[in-house]
Amino acid sequence: MATLNRPHALLLPFPAQGHVNPMMQLSTILSARSFYITFVNTEYIHDRMLKSGSTKSMADFRFETIPDGFPLEHSRTHNELSEVCKSMVDICPAHLEKVVDKLKGKSDVPPLTCIVYDGCMSWAQKTAIKLGVPGISFWTPSACGFYLYLSAPLLMEKGYIPLKDQSYLTNGYMEEEISCIPGMPLLRMKDVPSFYYDATNYIFEFLITQTQVGMSADLVLINTFDELEGPVMEALRDRLPVYSIGPLLEAEQKNGLSNSFASLWTEEKSCVQWLDDQEPGSVVYVCFGSVTVMSDQELEEFAWGLEGSKQPFLWVIRPDLVHGTSAKLPMEFVKKVKGRSFFVSWAPQLEVLCHPSVGGFLTHSGWNSTIESICAGVPMICWPFFAEQQINRTYVSQIWKIGIAMNDVVEKREVEEMVKRLMIGKEGEEMRRRIGEVRDASIRAVNKGGSSYNNLEKVLLKMEGKYRI
């Protein structure tokens, strides 16, 4: 197809690995369907992707960058998340307009057909309206997580959020039941996204605003599938033009594509060779994602719990995993687990989860990790950190029954017990059976005629401008 006749999608992720990855997966699928791709990152994120080699497999993409307003030395960690969110609203819209103007001036670039923006970048809908093209909101959390973000006005009206003060985190209020959200099971306050606890935090208002602005999107996409989150998707469809199009990593494979991952760290492939020498289904994979931080005490509790389980394990320990200092494990612990442990600072996660030696996943319950674990058929131990990870834990452990929920307070005895429950005995076997069924359902969803396949076909037609929105 001649370049100028191709549909042209501009994709704008929120600047964090858990948001860039699914947007990259969607971009790869669009590219395979003859879309011209312009992928817009912040300068900081793009530089990290270049250093990790993540852009090498996307040679056909056009990458553009916008500043985030911070100096290079700014850490951009979860502690500065409010600053990052504010900068996205205050600084980035004008720079996105400049990118659009630049593209208009290129004689070898086809006209923009649509703008796909992260749900946390819903301000980009105004740019789409100005251009007269569809604005498509892509939410990277689970459908249940997105639905809770969308339900903030209702939860405020009912008096559940924000918390009156910090004491409500420990006085029993977090066990308060919530039954007012159509399409969702009985919840507790501890399932509500952590960003909605404190109204003085900028992110509280930011998420409410971006979610409500995003309701004007021409299409809303979620990386899930109806067989997994059907009741929630039905409730959302009553309010929005929403489509489940996942799991995107399964859709990539179905289209004969290599899975695309925008890693901001260099992956240490040596861990795969170590896995090759382990017994089938014996290894616990431990990874808390790209943002989670913990205390020294929590790190030690996890360590000694893993030691006590006597199971082999592969543990991803980022240098910044411990808040305020470098992550260091007790030497006595390292000596005791020598021979049945492997430590890396970052791993090729999907490859690890799909390895036959891996039988369980101790995770922070981020949605990307959860959906990857489902697609690999690996049950989980869930220790959520923030955002909507708490509701993911509840659905994994109580609704889908494909994992175990840990308490928020880390104790080595509980870690040991959880690992043994998951890896040994009938309970773990039942979870493996159930997650195998869910994995099979995810494959059916992206196969021709499946729910996500059909949804994606409709979305592609609308993105190409061949179907009235």
From TrEMBL:
The keyword Glycosyltransferase belongs to this UniProt entry's keyword annotation? yes
Q: Does the keyword Transferase apply?
A: yes
Q: Which InterPro entries match?
A: Glyco_transf_N, UDP_glucos_trans, UDP_glycos_trans_CS
Reactions catalysed according to its record? 7-deoxyloganetate + UDP-alpha-D-glucose = 7-deoxyloganate + UDP + H(+)
Question: Gene3D superfamilies annotated for this entry?
Answer: Glycogen Phosphorylase B
Please provide, alphabetically and separated by semicolons, the GO molecular function terms listed in this UniProt record. 7-deoxyloganetic acid glucosyltransferase activity; quercetin 3-O-glucosyltransferase activity; quercetin 7-O-glucosyltransferase activity
Q: Per UniProt, which keywords does this protein have?
A: Glycosyltransferase, Transferase
Q: Where, by residue number, does the polypeptide cross the bilayer?
A: none
The family database entries (Pfam families) matched by this protein are listed as:
Glyco_transf_N, UDPGT
Q: Glycosyltransferase N-terminal domain spans which residues? A: 11-43
> What sort of enzyme, by top EC class, is this?
transferase
Its EC number(s): 2.4.1.-
Q: Do you know which PANTHER family this protein is assigned to?
A: GLUCOSYL/GLUCURONOSYL TRANSFERASES, UDP-GLYCOSYLTRANSFERASE 85A1-RELATED
Similarity field: Belongs to the UDP-glycosyltransferase family.
Please identify the protein, giving its name as recorded.
Answer: Glycosyltransferase
Protein source organism: Taxus chinensis (Chinese yew)
